[in-house]
């Protein structure tokens, strides 16, 4: 056999043998078989002695090349055997000291939290919890609430009007009207977290979509003290401590007398802090005694029955309670904000 042929034969023999093995032990045997002292390469070199000088040079180079090729193939095979062993399931090493994967548990939205609290507070005072539509007619959103046709809140730039003339309710007060239309006094109702809409530009304290808590009590001999008492109880529930209620006379068409409602700052006890802007008092929203005309509109006799009502922003309440400084955070689904609660 010609030496060139023999060299090629040794190479292909090596390739075939490497394909058929899968252990380091087999690889060691192949190393010995090809590269060992009595191996096939050594055998090829020994044949050089019978050749002329020029042939020696030529075949010497060829055999050296073969030797390097076989060495490289054997080393590649070694690496491939090693990686197969490492990735095989029985050889997977579990490091118990590694930190676990963090995963976040769902939490309740601060808006949901405060609504649940308000629900508990008013159920404990035996209020009926009601809900109603967000698309209202002008009668229930304005007229029945004694809001005259010329009132600025009815203008296009304050209210979203739909093409059929109905409106996206601008407050939850129409729920009072619809309740009084259905139920005769005594009435003790609250609507919690009702969605409302106003054409407000969005900023830190305004949102075109917001939610209100609205309460109404109608019975005989109802007066301002009852209102004060219910609001005190509500605030005690929300802030977990007694707060004082202060009424500042104000005008709302559906109440008479009407008031802006303030509470003593639950955070600084009146000393002044950033929440109350150093005044010791926090403004929450409107309240008052139901206007006699509103009662007449739903066929309740104002000479026999009186009512009181309040309607506040739920976001505002939550912002005060949780120290949130921007109403837009309620609607943005920002996880780093939501995870604080
Ligand atoms: Zn304060």
Mind telling me the CATH class of the largest domain? Alpha Beta
Total helical elements: 11
Please give the radius of gyration in angstroms. 43 Å
Main sheet makeup: 7 strands, mixed
- String of helices and strands: HHHHHEEHEHEEHEEEHEHH
Query: Roughly what percent helix?
Result: 25-40%
Q: What is the general shape?
A: rod-shaped
Give the total of beta strands: 9
Identify the bound ligands.
zinc ion
Structural class: alpha+beta
How would you summarize what this structure contains?
The chain contains 11 helices and 9 strands. The chain has helices at 3-19, 24-35, 40-46, 53-87, 110-124, 138-141, 173-182, 224-239, 292-297, 314-322, 335-338, and strands spanning 128-129, 135-136, 167-168, 187-197, 209-219, 245-250, 255-264, 281-290, 306-313. The longest helix has 35 residues, at 53-87.
């Amino acid at each position: 056999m010609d030496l060139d042929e023999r060299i090629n034969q040794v190479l292909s023999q090596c390739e075939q043998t490497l394909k058929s093995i899968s252990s380091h032990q087999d690889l060691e045997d192949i190393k010995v078989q090809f590269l060992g002292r009595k191996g096939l390469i050594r055998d090829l070199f020994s044949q050089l002695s019978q050749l002329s000088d020029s042939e020696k040079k030529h075949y010497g180079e060829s055999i050296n090349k073969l030797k390097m090729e076989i060495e490289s193939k054997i080393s590649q095979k070694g690496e491939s055997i090693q990686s197969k062993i490492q990735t095989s399931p029985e050889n997977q090493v579990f490091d118990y000291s590694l930190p676990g994967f963090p995963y976040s548990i769902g939490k309740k939205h601060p808006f949901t939290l405060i609504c649940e609290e308000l629900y508990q507070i008013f159920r404990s005072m035996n209020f009926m919890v009601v809900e109603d539509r967000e698309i209202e007619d002008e009668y229930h959103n304005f007229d029945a609430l004694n809001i005259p046709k010329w009132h600025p809140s009815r203008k296009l730039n304050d209210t979203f009007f739909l093409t059929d003339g109905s409106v996206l309710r601008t407050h939850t007060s129409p729920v009072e009207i619809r309740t009084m239309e259905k139920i005769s006094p005594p009435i003790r109702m609250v609507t919690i977290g009702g969605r409302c809409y106003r054409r407000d530009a969005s900023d830190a304290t305004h949102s075109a979509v917001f939610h209100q808590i609205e309460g109404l009590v109608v019975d005989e001999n109802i007066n301002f003290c009852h209102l004060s008492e219910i609001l005190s109880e509500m605030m005690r529930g929300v802030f977990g401590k007694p707060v004082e209620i202060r009424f500042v006379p104000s005008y709302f068409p559906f109440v008479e007398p009407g008031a802006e409602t303030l509470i003593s700052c639950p955070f600084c006890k009146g000393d002044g802090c950033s929440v109350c802007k150093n005044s010791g008092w926090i403004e929450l929203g409107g309240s008052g005694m139901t206007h006699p005309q509103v009662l007449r509109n739903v066929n309740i006799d104002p000479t026999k029955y009186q009512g009181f009502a309040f309607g506040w922003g739920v976001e505002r309440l939550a912002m005060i309670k949780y120290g949130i400084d921007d109403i837009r955070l309620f609607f943005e689904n920002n996880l780093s904000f939501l995870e604080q609660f």
